Amino acid sequence: MWREWIPFWRPGVSPYGGDVDLLFAGLLLASALVLGLLFFLLIVFCVRYRAGNPTDRGHRVEKSWHWEVGWTSASLVIFLLLFVWGASVYLEIYQKPQGELSVFVVAKQWMWKVQHPGGQSEINSLHMPVNRPVRLVMASQDVIHSFFIPALRLKHDVVPGRYQSLEIEAITAGHYHLFCAEYCGTDHSGMIGEIVAMEPADYAKWLNDQGPANSLAREGGALFRELGCSGCHAANSSVHAPLLEGLYGKPVPLSDGSTVTADDKYIRDSILLPRSQVAVGYSPVMPSFEGKINEDQLLRLVTYIKSLADRAP
Ligand code: HEC
Ligand SMILES: [Cu+2]
């Protein structure tokens, strides 16, 4: 296989690993051709016009527009093709969420904390089933980190203040490296972990072996009452606030006339920055919870509101 010629190459274990490798090789080849051509001309002219070589130095060539326009448009077309190629691979990888298994990842100095919907949590490792897309909803508690899994040919920045969503899938069971690929402070180099891709049966067993845990949604429900959300959002409340049952995944008309889909990001923003997007027909009376709850609590609230999706409002 041609790929084995690339130094340090390791087989990818994601469905689109081959496409990414091909794109990488294409870019490498295009850059090598440009570099090769430049060096070739450089050397030819060095030899031809070296001191003492009796070559024709008169008759300077007139500037030719044919050449100028020719090479400029040729390189434009070639590099635009690379862009189209890259964009199509990107679109294949970054699809819209469609009800996959979702797992939360919170990055902090200097570790990855992973929480499964059933309440199982782990540090610096992520267990997942093979051949099943997993949606990672990622947040950072402090600075920018970057979630990098070379074997899956995926890297995604985790920026504080918003959710990043990334779909990953492994087609072969095994242990794979997980790195932080954004310098994030003193122990950045130690911010490493592993992805453990398992057969679905082993995965189910692993989840079970983690001992009894409250599901994130249940803990979120408890928080929802503790923090006083239910005081406004309950059906019998005296405050005019939207019911959150059946909200997730639905379009929400906003007071500025636009419409957004109630996804994880929207719910997160509704809790931290309630004033930024106000649902139509309501007054902006909801207090901001920015700084009052941490990422762990936030993701529980979001999971709880997600779990209300199938309930009729
Ligand atoms: C003082 C009453 C009040 C409290 C307390 C409150 N909310 Fe709200 N909430 C509202 C109102 C009013 C709206 C609609 C206006 C808006 O979009 O900001 C709203 C909107 C929302 C939305 C967007 C709903 C939609 O249909 O677009 C979400 C999600 C939400 N709240 C979650 C929460 C959570 C979680 C808590 C607790 C951490 C909470 N709220 C606490 C009054 C409240
Ligand atoms: Cu980091």
UniProtKB/TrEMBL annotation:
<keyword id="KW-1278">Translocase</keyword>
<dbReference type="GO" id="GO:0005507">
    <property type="term" value="F:copper ion binding"/>
</dbReference>
<dbReference type="GO" id="GO:0042773">
    <property type="term" value="P:ATP synthesis coupled electron transport"/>
</dbReference>
<dbReference type="InterPro" id="IPR014222">
    <property type="entry name" value="Cyt_c_oxidase_su2"/>
</dbReference>
<keyword id="KW-0479">Metal-binding</keyword>
<keyword id="KW-0812">Transmembrane</keyword>
<dbReference type="InterPro" id="IPR008972">
    <property type="entry name" value="Cupredoxin"/>
</dbReference>
<dbReference type="Pfam" id="PF00034">
    <property type="entry name" value="Cytochrom_C"/>
</dbReference>
<dbReference type="InterPro" id="IPR045187">
    <property type="entry name" value="CcO_II"/>
</dbReference>
<keyword id="KW-0813">Transport</keyword>
<feature type="domain" description="Cytochrome c">
    <location>
        <begin position="215"/>
        <end position="309"/>
    </location>
</feature>
<dbReference type="GO" id="GO:0016020">
    <property type="term" value="C:membrane"/>
</dbReference>
<keyword id="KW-0408">Iron</keyword>
<keyword id="KW-0349">Heme</keyword>
<keyword id="KW-0249">Electron transport</keyword>
<feature type="transmembrane region" description="Helical">
    <location>
        <begin position="68"/>
        <end position="91"/>
    </location>
</feature>
<feature type="transmembrane region" description="Helical">
    <location>
        <begin position="22"/>
        <end position="47"/>
    </location>
</feature>
<comment type="similarity">
    <text>Belongs to the cytochrome c oxidase subunit 2 family.</text>
</comment>
<comment type="function">
    <text>Subunits I and II form the functional core of the enzyme complex. Electrons originating in cytochrome c are transferred via heme a and Cu(A) to the binuclear center formed by heme a3 and Cu(B).</text>
</comment>
<dbReference type="InterPro" id="IPR009056">
    <property type="entry name" value="Cyt_c-like_dom"/>
</dbReference>
<protein>
    <recommendedName>
        <fullName>cytochrome-c oxidase</fullName>
        <ecNumber>7.1.1.9</ecNumber>
    </recommendedName>
</protein>
<dbReference type="InterPro" id="IPR002429">
    <property type="entry name" value="CcO_II-like_C"/>
</dbReference>
<keyword id="KW-0186">Copper</keyword>
<dbReference type="GO" id="GO:0020037">
    <property type="term" value="F:heme binding"/>
</dbReference>
<keyword id="KW-0472">Membrane</keyword>
<dbReference type="InterPro" id="IPR036909">
    <property type="entry name" value="Cyt_c-like_dom_sf"/>
</dbReference>
<feature type="domain" description="Cytochrome oxidase subunit II copper A binding">
    <location>
        <begin position="98"/>
        <end position="209"/>
    </location>
</feature>
<dbReference type="Pfam" id="PF00116">
    <property type="entry name" value="COX2"/>
</dbReference>
<keyword id="KW-0679">Respiratory chain</keyword>
<dbReference type="InterPro" id="IPR036257">
    <property type="entry name" value="Cyt_c_oxidase_su2_TM_sf"/>
</dbReference>
<dbReference type="GO" id="GO:0004129">
    <property type="term" value="F:cytochrome-c oxidase activity"/>
</dbReference>
<keyword id="KW-1133">Transmembrane helix</keyword>
<dbReference type="GO" id="GO:0016491">
    <property type="term" value="F:oxidoreductase activity"/>
</dbReference>
<dbReference type="InterPro" id="IPR001505">
    <property type="entry name" value="Copper_CuA"/>
</dbReference>
